[in-house]
């Protein structure tokens, strides 16, 4: 860690977040399960293979088109478990609430948490509430933790990524961040732009039942598609080449990005995933994705290459190839 | 810093216009481009219209690119 | 995988690059003087498509990058005053001054807010009558009229607590200074499209008349840029030197007179310091006497220690296109985007940041 104080950028999911994890957290906590730095940890208890994860939600505004902080808190944790190749079962929910917070808003939030939990087939079985003085938090923060059972026969890990594998993206990118950011900058969005916030565990279960040897699943949340691809390229020590033309972006989202100067490839998603798999399996995976409500616009966006190790290239619309780097810090505070 | 996008003017009240890009709307100022009517396309930079888009020229550019694409084979 | 439009784009790009290769027979250096072009060139991978004899170099086109340390030190000093709220475009936040940056001050408790439009400052001023709101007025001819209009609007709304700290710069005097420098070698210019939307074509005529250099006012789509390079190539091939306009759908010969009128109502031309280039005569804008009460420096005087520049940082040479970022010993080592030494590494439009981020052809199959 080079910095003496925590900056907002340390929470953005980019290089500085990585510095925080590797410079402060890992030296203190290092162990085999944590060191994998996946979305969740796979841990062995006598007789069961568990996946375990936790995440805190501080999004502002609390309510946005397509969801709210509660729905996000359930979907985010469910998806982190699903990306480990696990079937999520139980969640905990911790609430830190600012004095004076409207009870009606809290009820809306917990009701949508339950609705998301029901859709995902998980139960919120334990929880905690703390109330702090006015000004100590901004409205409400929620932490959820979750456990699930690793689906038999799967072994999702960047170490299984190989040159020649296909990279599949489940749908258009950037919606969640744009749904949240637009209002902060005075943009009025049409009703067609909503956060993509959704539980993906049902879809993941179908995919893994058909193709258990999928190499990697990952949901491109903070830092977006570009960051997630970079993480995998680095962890697997492979190159990645993706096609700009193949990456879907909703036209309204692209327009918002043009206005605000954002690159959709770096924007957070909360209901998308990328899949690394052998090309022979792509057709089956795509058929399942396209038949599911959360994967209708899925497609192959690129391939794993053997070099340059650790780097992601993007073939642009006019045919040039440029580096698609990890962001340092985005200008989008508190989008999840 | 000089990022700007073309947008369609859909409403005007005094020097405030509502513009639309890809279904997204925003209010912008016409202080720097007062001579605008509804239906015009304008270039928007940091909340201000800064120039009208010449639709005829825009069409010509698109036509030219199509024509040139034909030569590249 | 490609639809019709994408196929057309690739074919048109192939046409331009083929023609550029045919027309340019010996090495040339073409300079873009707009940070938005710098980013667009990298984002579209244009360098990788051009033939090796055509080198694109970035000039002093990123307004954040050319802002000297003493301006940032002044902004930092204002931000530390308890009754001040700073409003700024996001680019300025991480730019290092002599000893601090606005991002560091924000983390330490200063009230610094990012705005999309300078007008947002006025809503903040109206909501906080007990505070002084200072807008960091940075930018070229495209952006300066917006700050001027915001001052006029503040006057109309009767807001007594809004100020601008101006570091606006003008492009043509910088080009002039650049060409007077014998270290700088350029064979043609990609001229800034959105600056030209305001100032028109005429202010660039000296390029052709005095220096016999071609210039093309360029748009920002990848094909706009390739077509503009092609237009330069045609001029170079024919040994002509005129100012051409590729961005005709936006840029009129006369520019935007209404915007220039607003600008001259509030601002006057002043000598201005550019990072790495020194003071260039009549190359900046300061608030004129009539609007003095909106000028932070005049209305809220404060003492700021004399600025110091990083000795080893070679931003100045990068900004003049004399060296490439990789030629600076700090680049990618002591100076990286997460801990920038020079301003060229911090702004998203900075030449060093763009080279670092997009790797200038680093990705190869």
TrEMBL record, chain B:
Q: Which GO terms describe its biological process?
A: protein maturation
Offer one Pfam family short name for this entry. HupF_HypC
InterPro entries from the UniProt entry: Hydgase_assmbl_chp_CS (IPR019812), Hydrogenase_HupF/HypC (IPR001109)
Gene Ontology molecular-function annotations: carbon dioxide binding; iron ion binding
Q: Which family does it belong to?
A: Belongs to the HupF/HypC family.
Q: What is this protein called?
A: Hydrogenase assembly chaperone hypC/hupF
From TrEMBL, chain C:
Q: Name one Pfam family in it.
A: HypD
Q: Which domain of life is it from?
A: Bacteria
Protein's UniProt keywords contain Membrane? no
Gene Ontology BP terms: protein maturation
List the GO molecular function terms.
Answer: 4 iron, 4 sulfur cluster binding; carbon monoxide binding; iron ion binding
Whether Cell membrane counts among this entry's keywords is no
Alphabetically sorted, this entry's keywords are: Iron, Metal-binding
InterPro entries named among the record's database cross-references: Hyd_form_HypD (IPR002780), HypD_1 (IPR042243), HypD_2_sf (IPR042244)
Q: Which family does it belong to?
A: Belongs to the HypD family.
Protein name according to UniProt: Hydrogenase isoenzymes formation protein HypD
């Amino acid at each position: 860690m080079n910095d003496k104080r925590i900056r907002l950028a340390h929470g953005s999911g980019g290089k500085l977040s990585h510095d925080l994890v590797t410079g402060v957290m890992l030296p203190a906590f290092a162990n085999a399960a944590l060191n994998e730095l996946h979305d969740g940890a796979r841990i062995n208890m006598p007789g069961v293979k568990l996946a375990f994860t936790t995440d805190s939600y501080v999004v502002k505004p609390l309510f946005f088109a397509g969801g709210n902080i509660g729905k996000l808190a359930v979907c985010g944790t469910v998806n982190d478990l699903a990306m480990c190749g696990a079937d999520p079962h139980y969640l905990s929910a911790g609430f830190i609430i600012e004095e004076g917070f409207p009870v009606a808003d809290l009820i809306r939030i917990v009701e949508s948490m339950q609705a998301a939990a029901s859709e995902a087939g998980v139960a919120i079985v334990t929880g905690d509430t703390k109330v702090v003085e006015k000004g100590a938090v901004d409205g409400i923060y929620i932490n959820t933790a979750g456990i699930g059972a690793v689906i038999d026969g799967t072994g999702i890990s960047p170490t299984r990524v190989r040159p020649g594998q296909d990279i599949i993206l489940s749908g258009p990118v950037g919606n969640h961040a744009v749904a949240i950011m637009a209002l902060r900058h005075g943009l009025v969005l049409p009703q067609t732009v909503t956060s993509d916030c959704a539980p993906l565990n049902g879809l993941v279960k179908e995919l893994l039942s058909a193709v258990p040897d999928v190499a990697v699943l990952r949901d491109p949340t903070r830092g977006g598609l570009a960051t997630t691809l970079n993480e995998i390229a680095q962890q697997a020590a492979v190159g990645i080449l993706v096609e700009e033309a193949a990456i879907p972006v909703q036209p309204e989202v692209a327009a918002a990005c043009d206005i605000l100067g954002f690159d959709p490839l770096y924007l957070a998603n909360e209901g998308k995933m990328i899949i690394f798999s052998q090309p022979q399996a792509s057709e089956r995976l795509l058929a399942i994705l396209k038949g599911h409500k959360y994967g209708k616009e899925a497609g192959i966006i690129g391939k794993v290459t053997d070099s340059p190790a650790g780097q992601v290239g993007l073939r642009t619309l006019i045919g040039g190839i440029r580096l698609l780097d990890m962001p340092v810090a985005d200008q989008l505070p508190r989008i999840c | 810093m000089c990022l700007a996008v073309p947008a369609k003017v859909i409403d005007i009240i005094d020097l405030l216009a509502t513009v639309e890009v890809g279904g997204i709307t925003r209010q912008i100022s016409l202080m720097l481009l007062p001579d605008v009517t509804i239906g015009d396309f304008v270039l928007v930079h940091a909340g201000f219209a800064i120039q009208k888009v010449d639709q005829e020229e825009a069409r010509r550019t698109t036509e030219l690119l199509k024509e040139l694409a034909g030569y590249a084979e | 995988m490609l639809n019709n439009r994408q196929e057309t784009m690739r074919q048109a790009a192939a046409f331009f690059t083929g023609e550029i290769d045919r027309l340019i027979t010996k090495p040339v250096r073409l300079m873009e003087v707009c940070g938005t072009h710098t980013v667009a060139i990298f984002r579209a991978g244009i360098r990788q498509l051009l033939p090796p004899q055509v080198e694109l170099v970035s000039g002093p086109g990123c307004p954040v990058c050319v802002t000297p340390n003493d301006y940032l030190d002044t902004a930092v000093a204002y931000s530390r005053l308890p009754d001040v709220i700073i409003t700024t475009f996001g680019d300025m936040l991480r730019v290092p001054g002599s000893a601090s940056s606005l991002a560091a001050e924000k983390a330490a408790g200063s009230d610094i807010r990012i705005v999309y439009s300078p007008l947002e400052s006025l809503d903040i001023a109206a909501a906080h009558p007990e505070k002084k709101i200072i807008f960091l007025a940075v930018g070229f001819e495209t952006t300066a009229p917006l700050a001027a209009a915001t001052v006029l609007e503040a006057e109309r709304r009767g807001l007594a607590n809004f100020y601008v700290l101006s570091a606006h710069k003008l492009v043509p005097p910088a080009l002039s200074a650049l060409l007077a420098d014998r270290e700088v070698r350029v064979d043609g210019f990609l001229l800034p499209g959105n600056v030209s939307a305001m100032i028109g074509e005429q202010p660039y005529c000296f390029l052709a008349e005095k220096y016999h250099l071609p210039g093309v006012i360029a748009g920002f789509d990848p094909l706009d840029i390739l077509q503009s390079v092609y237009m330069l190539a045609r001029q170079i091939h024919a040994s002509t030197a005129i100012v051409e306009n590729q961005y005709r759908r936006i840029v009129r010969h006369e520019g935007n007179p209404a915007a220039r009128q607003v600008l001259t109502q509030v601002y006057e031309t002043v000598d201005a310091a550019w990072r790495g280039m020194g003071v260039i005569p009549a190359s900046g804008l300061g608030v004129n006497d009539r609007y003095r009460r909106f000028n932070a420096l005049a209305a809220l005087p404060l003492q700021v220690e004399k600025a110091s520049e990083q000795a080893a940082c070679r931003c100045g040479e990068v900004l003049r296109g004399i060296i490439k970022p990789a030629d600076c010993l700090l680049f990618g080592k002591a100076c990286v985007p997460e801990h920038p030494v020079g301003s060229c590494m911090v702004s998203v439009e900075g030449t060093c940041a763009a080279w670092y981020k997009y790797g200038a052809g680093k990705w190869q199959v």
